[in-house]
Design a protein that fits this description.
Protein name: Pyruvate, phosphate dikinase
Organism: Chromatium okenii
Bound molecules: phosphoenolpyruvate, magnesium ion
Number of domains: 6
Radius of gyration: 35 Å
Function: Catalyzes the reversible phosphorylation of pyruvate and phosphate.
EC number: 2.7.9.1
CATH superfamily of the largest domain: Phosphoenolpyruvate-binding domains
Strand order of the largest sheet: 12-22-21-14-15-16-17-13
InterPro entries: ATP_grasp_subdomain_1, PEP-util_enz_mobile_dom, PEP_util_AS, PEP_util_C, Phosphohistidine_dom_sf, PPDK_AMP/ATP-bd, Pyruvate_phosphate_dikinase, Pyrv/PenolPyrv_kinase-like_dom
Distance between the termini: 34 Å
CATH architecture of the largest domain: Alpha-Beta Barrel
């Protein structure tokens, strides 16, 4: 559109409009406007980026506006763009509405050419500084704007370093760097076929286009896909043009990155690193290992005080932990950018609680700033402290947690081994770059031999909640030989290593890990969450251990105990099989009589662990043939047995034919042994049993078992099974009650589609209840309810509500039933394509399909409560632990969600978010 304003000086841009100015640009405007010392500059909007990408040319008049802004910068700084006496240099940075660290490209020192370089050298009196800036510019511009690979520059640079016997970049002289720049110019000429552009405005225009183009680059696209960044969250990148300030102007200059609080622990203390006489990229790229900010107090005490003041100003303005970059140029402190700090969850939780106590944020803000899903990170394992192991290397504890896996030395291979082959992988690099991102996704942990706690590896690993040890300088990584040397020892690709990102230690071999504890702050935070949530959070737990863990995470009951999991035990399976293959009701009852005490013990343990909270036990659900051996295995075994029988008969026949049965004692003895070893009678007996089993398996075979003889259908055709379970539940409850343990048993019937099914089950439940009450001398109260997991159950909610005291949505089955997708087939075959092509936004087995499945749930709730207003309703499918689905459950007026143990904290926070968001609207 003509006359749209695309270019905004930092003094004018709306600091709240991240969509238009990008996060970084909006912040630079805001920082300028609240009086922080920000180098002058301006922002080109994301709208200009979108226009450019659509039209493949810059919007009309854009460069005129840019020129006007450059003139304003010249005025503010007293320097001239392209001026050979006192040249103005700028950085050109990307920045979209969502922070995408390391995903987009930045160009520094733009405006340098042969003439302005001399101006810089004259103005600073520092030729080394000038050439250093120049060579950096040529490489960055060459790479980002002209597509010259880093390797081409690195080769030349390393050659000069070697010739100069320089260990580090700072050891290179002005002359060395001059030669570096000359060689770099030649590299650009050779690779692109054109000379390096020397006109500063031409450089600026190319750079702006390159930043715009990087929005559509592979790295950025992959990142957005991985983190589900949709166009309404961020669309296009802004370009920030900022006056250069130099941290590499000598020993009174420095550059650094800092967090207002420690991003690994949340400790309320300025945290970060700096390098004297260096540029920002040196810190981020991890080329030199920086010093911790504590040292600044010794080296530049006045600057350290100013930095503390800056920290306070940032937090009191943003009410959020800030991750900021600063530069000290000849004793002058500049703040170059700030953004909300990406922290691991431990730190997020601690800062939430502490900032609330400091009065910086409210309890609601403290809750809402934490993504519920991230809480699972706090349940990550740590190294078993009872295991004594000698670390082989010590690096920086860059992202907490512990992991073991095979060492892999590049990102592609990490992806191949980790993602494709499902192996546990530790990515080992000298330092990482944004293009390694796919290797991060596939790895359990990341180890680098260079770089600090704010290096790329550290920042990205923390964001992903993966353990990272950075800057383990004792390790020398040889990518070509796929080997790392550590002192006198070494490890190769494929060798197992262990990282402890909390201590920074690296070990050879695998070290076991243990479950972590809740931090006191997490308990405080979840306490606040419970006060605000309306939905209660229960757990899906089948064993006492699961139940204990879920309870320690704050579950207020068991919403689903799947009894079939209790049958799948080496000790019990033979009895279960006996029950299934029984030919008469008496035989079946005999097997059930053996199972009864076992089940009673199971239920009693669950009741004890959860007392006095409710425990919802679901009667047997899956088709019983699932407990029987596989038909093909049986067939093979049978044919082996038949062959054996032939042999057994053969020995007997042979012995008879040879008259050996009347032979000498010792020969007869040998024949006897041979016959006993394969006793025909024993073999025949085994064949008979196998044949019977095979017959049973064939009889129970179903073309579509998930839609077949399972759930309540089984309970109706084999009532003895459900009766045994109901008796076990009620007897266990009666035993507990007798022992003074408060219990709230709930009996839940699966796969119900008609009220008549429920009535049938309820009849024998009532009979057994009366019988147990009489035997134990006192009735135990219990609730009787139904799973709602078939479509007809939703449609018949009114009549089901007449029989049931509670509804429990089994959204795993309900999703299958609503879509008519079988989960296993869908996820392996067409769902990925459906998601990629946008036919379905999400995998409905992960994210509740609110429009379809959710609609059925709403109807069932409404109709069920129309008959029974106090009908208790919850969800126990996988979706019960997912924040977006929990938000829907809140809106749909459910009473509780039930999810697996480790999701309980997630669900508690998500339930609070749901209530707060609904309240805020
Ligand atoms: C469900 O269907 O959502 C459910 C909880 O049952 P299951 O996953 O055991 O079939
Ligand atoms: Mg189910």
């Amino acid at each position: 559109m003509a006359n749209t304003k695309h270019v905004f000086a930092f003094e004018d841009g709306d600091g709240k409009n991240k969509h238009l100015l990008g996060g970084k640009g909006a912040n630079l405007c805001e920082m300028t406007q609240i009086g922080l010392n920000v180098p002058p500059g301006f922002v080109i909007s994301t709208a200009a980026c979108l226009d450019y990408l659509a039209a493949t040319k810059l919007p009309t008049g854009l460069m005129d506006d840019v020129q006007a802004q450059m003139r304003a910068l010249e005025q503010k700084t007293g320097k001239g763009f392209g001026d050979s006496d006192n040249p103005l240099l700028v950085s050109v940075r990307s920045g979209s509405a969502m922070s995408m660290p390391g995903m987009m490209d930045t160009i520094l020192n733009l405006g340098l050419n042969a003439e302005t370089l001399q101006g810089v050298i004259c103005a600073t009196g520092d030729a080394r500084f000038g050439y250093d800036a120049y060579r950096r510019f040529i490489q960055l511009f060459g790479k980002v704007a002209l597509g010259v690979p880093d390797a081409a520059f690195d080769k030349e640079f390393d050659a000069i370093k070697e010739a100069a016997h320089a260990k580090q970049d700072v050891d290179l002289s002005a002359n060395d760097l001059k030669e570096v720049s000359e060689r770099f110019l030649a590299v650009v000429q050779n690779v692109t076929g054109h000379p390096f552009p020397s006109d500063p405005y031409q450089q600026l225009e190319i750079a702006i286009k390159a930043v715009f183009n990087s929005w559509g680059g592979k790295r950025a696209v992959d990142y957005r896909r991985q983190f589900h960044i949709t166009p309404d969250m961020a669309n296009g990148t802004a370009v920030n043009v900022v006056t250069m300030v130099f941290g590499n102007r000598g020993d009174d200059s420095a550059t650094g990155v800092a967090f207002t609080r420690n991003p690994a622990t949340g400790e309320n203390k300025l945290y970060g690193e700096y390098l004297v006489n260096a540029q920002g990229e040196d810190v981020v790229a991890g080329i030199r290992t920086p010093k911790p900010l504590d040292r600044l107090k010794v080296e530049m005490p006045e600057m350290a005080d100013q930095l503390d003041a800056l920290r306070d100003k940032l937090e009191s303005h943003y009410h959020e932990v800030q991750d900021f970059e600063f530069t000290i140029e000849r004793g002058q402190l500049y703040c170059l950018q700030t953004r909300n700090g990406k922290m691991n969850t431990v730190a997020m939780v601690r800062t939430s609680v502490e900032m609330e106590r400091e009065g910086l944020i409210t309890k609601e803000q403290a809750l809402l700033r934490i993504a519920p899903d991230s809480l699972e990170q706090m349940l990550f394992p740590r190294l078993d402290p009872t295991i004594k192991a000698e670390a082989v290397a010590q690096g920086l504890p860059a992202s907490p947690g512990a992991a073991s896996g095979i060492a892999v030395f590049d990102a592609d291979r990490a992806e191949q081994y980790g993602r494709e082959q499902g192996r546990k992988v530790i990515l080992v690099r000298e330092e990482t770059k944004p293009e390694d991102i796919h290797g991060f996704f596939a790895s359990e942990g990341i180890l680098t031999s260079r770089g600090g706690k704010t290096s790329h590896a550290a920042v990205v690993a923390r964001g992903m909640g993966k353990p990272c040890v950075a800057g383990a300088e004792g390790i020398s990584v040889d990518v070509n030989r796929r080997e790392a040397r550590v002192g006198l020892t070494s490890f190769k690709e494929g060798d197992v290593i262990t990282l402890d990102g909390t201590s920074g230690k690296v070990y050879l071999g695998a070290i076991p890990t243990v479950e972590p504890d809740f931090t006191p702050e997490l308990n405080v935070l979840l306490g606040w969450a419970d006060e605000r949530a309306r939905l209660k959070v229960m757990a899906n737990a089948d064993t006492p251990d699961d139940a204990r863990r879920a309870r320690s995470y704050g579950a207020v009951g068991i919403g689903l105990a799947r009894t079939e999991r209790m049958f799948n035990d080496v000790e019990r399976l033979p009895i279960v099989i006996e029950m299934i293959v029984a030919d008469t009701p008496e035989q079946r009852q005999a097997a059930l009589d053996k199972l009864l005490p076992l089940q009673r013990r199971d239920f009693r343990e669950l009741f004890e662990v959860m007392s006095p909270n409710p425990v919802t036990i679901r009667l047997l659900d899956p088709p019983i043939h699932e407990f029987l051996p596989d038909e093909h295995v049986l067939e093979r075994e049978l044919s082996e047995l038949r062959a054996l029988a032939q042999n057994a008969r053969g020995v007997t026949v042979l012995a008879g034919a040879m008259g050996l049965l009347h032979a000498s004692e010792s020969v007869r003895h040998d024949i006897d042994i041979a016959r006993r070893m394969i006793d025909p009678a024993v073999v025949e007996d085994a064949i008979g049993k196998k044949e019977a089993m095979l017959k049973k398996v064939r009889a129970l075979y179903e073309t579509n078992p998930m839609l077949g003889h399972r759930g309540v259908r089984l309970g109706i055709t084999f009532p003895e099974i459900y009766q045994m379970q109901v008796r076990a539940i009620l007897e266990a409850a009666a035993e507990c009650a007798k022992a003074g343990i408060q219990v709230k048993p709930q009996i839940k019937v699966p796969q119900v589609c008609t009220a008549e099914e429920l009535r049938k089950v309820k009849t024998f439940v009532d009979d057994i209840h009366a019988e147990v009450a009489e035997r134990y001398g006192k009735p135990v109260s219990f609730k009787f309810g139904t799973m709602i997991e078939v479509v007809r159950a939703c449609m018949r909610a009114e009549s089901l509500a007449e029989e049931a005291e509670f509804f429990s949505f089994g959204t795993n089955d309900l999703t299958q039933a609503t879509f008519s997708f079988s989960r296993e087939d869908a996820e392996n075959k067409f769902l990925p394509l459906y998601n990629q092509s946008g036919i379905l936004q999400d995998n409905p087995f992960d994210v509740l399909d609110v429009k379809g499945v959710g609609k059925l749930m709403q109807l069932a709730v409404e109709w069920g409560r129309s008959v029974k207003p106090d009908l208790h309703v919850g969800i126990c499918g996988e979706h019960g632990g997912h924040p977006a689905s929990i938000e829907f459950c809140h809106k749909a007026n459910l009473d509780y969600v039930s999810c697996s143990g480790p999701r309980v904290p997630v669900a508690r926070l998500a339930a609070a978010h749901a209530a707060l968001k609904a309240g805020n609207k």
